[in-house]
Fold these 3 entries.
Entry 1:
Amino acid sequence: MEEQIKNTIDKLIQEWFSKLLSGEINNDILLLENTSTTYISELQSAIRQHKENNVEYIIVDEDKQSTKYTTRTNKNLIYVLSPNKSNTKLLATNLIKHNSFLYIPEKHEFYTNMSKYINKDLKNIGNIKIEKRYLYYIEKMDPFDFIMNSTESQLQDFLRFIIFQGCLSWNSGNKFVLMQNYEIAENDLALLKKGEILTARLAILLYKTTMLDVELSKIYIGKYFRAKIGSKSKTFNIKLLNRLGERIKDTNINMTNHVKNFKAYDLKVNESELNIRIEIAKNLITAFLDNKTLDIDNIGKMTNLPKKEVQILKDKLIQKKALLAMASC
């Protein structure tokens, strides 16, 4: 797996510089570490050896120029991080909000062997198919879409990369908090993918990491997931989990991590949609309440509600009608 990742990022770097040297504009910004005091001049020299006259690019030295380039220009952009990454200004710029960054980690061979990657004579790079962009690019993603369209292992890989290698690891305080959450994420991910229950703490962790913003409040994140799921988070505990039966059977979920009550979203329940279906059922029952041919089976089918629940609604409406009749006498 690690060898495959290395080979892919090698090709992505070569492709990026191949486009630059041929006069094309890369869609992604190249994000580099500042590994030495002479590094930027070495990079410029390596590009100069191969570039054509029409090649336009900008190297942004974060220590000197970061405030000057807060939005994207119509040129190839190389962003060189400050040596002290805990003070990076990148996360506060508009660049991070609207662009994707091809990130070359500090220990990559590129920094000691640029000629392998910056060479206009490179051939057969070919089309690179990437299934997991989040292992190579730092970019914002829609949290809910990413959660719903990713497997358990993909979510684990993403969290491992963004917390331990990606930009959220650059501030030691943020990294400590995120690492604490990562330690319990494995258990919560099993509950999510096998039981369709998203714990509030995992929702917060995935929101902050996909949106690249560790400062967002729990209230703001809660509103986002409520709108997406159609339900508020509920209080869960072991007893409630056990009642779910088949949904968490054979998931190997460690219940010791859920000894106390915890907040979570049941992804199988959309309260907004359910309330609408109940209201439709009420209206149908009310319209045909005096009709002896009222068929609760058909109402159940039309509203996708259990027959038992439709019967309860009917009984309540009959009782309410009787009470109103008595009150009017």
Entry 2:
Amino acid sequence: MIRICWWGKASRLHGIDKIIGSVKKLHHNYPEIKLSIFEDDAKRAEYLKQSYMGLEPDIGDFLDVRSDMTFSTGLGEYLSDEADIVLGVFGGTELGMTVVPNKVVEAMALGAPVVTQAATALNEFNLIGDGLKVVDPDNTFENEIEDIIVRCRENSKYIEDLQCGLVQKYNENFNVKLYRSRMLRVLWGNEAFTASMHREAFDEQVR
């Protein structure tokens, strides 16, 4: 089985239609693919099930929608053990094309390969690579998923290399000390913040 995972608020703003549609196409060539969606609200999860499974009864062959697990109740452990590929955001909104989505950072911490829409911040942090593939918001992502699957089948160590590289990039960019330092540097440009802290104290904090 190849388990593709997504979590959060399953809305069209996050590109949920594109996610399900693209995985459905992949499932025709790779029947072992399963998509697990972890919705953080039980009512939305039920609505999602009825919306898609009511229209396409066979969609249950590859789609599993759950609301019984969050990061506070074991989702992180589940993803670490079960997620082969993680999907990010595909809504095409201005915000989504600018920031690094939380899902991407969380997946990197878990060492899970990620496919998401292109965003300027992903380039700024130099995160894009074999372990983090991006697509234009107007495109679907079947080719990127298939590339990961084919490479993993050709080289048993490929997935291990991806996992190590992702965790390393996470540690280099998003560890608590570094993040705090970056935030302080941003705040230093704020007059009120600058007035409240001596330069010597600021330099000590960002080291």
Entry 3:
Amino acid sequence: MTDNAVAKPMTATEQFREKIFDRIRSDIGDLMPDEMLREIVKQCIHDELNKPVGGIGGGSPWIKHIIKEQISGRVRQTAIDIVSAEESKIHAAMVENLKEQMPEMMATLLLTILKGQANSLEFAVQEILNKVQRY
């Protein structure tokens, strides 16, 4: 690799591992070589993220539940913020869509009503014919 090569940005998992590595390194000092510590942290994270827990047939690893709990509120709030910021655009798009779809929706509704009325009329005529035939 040349000195001019640009370092690839770290993924979220790699950043997470680095943070854990740094925290452990600060707690235990220089007792263990960096590469060994990195490999231990990497393996522990992998094991915890993939280890099923309790219940019949196992379940999701506990850390996935914790991560989901921690980010679900942030994801929900982010979605609310985005929708709130774009509310006028969303409203305009909905109104435009309804304007475009309204004639077809009204035609479908009217046809459904007319079919129902035709069926009722057919039934009433059939009843009258049945009565006439009996007499």
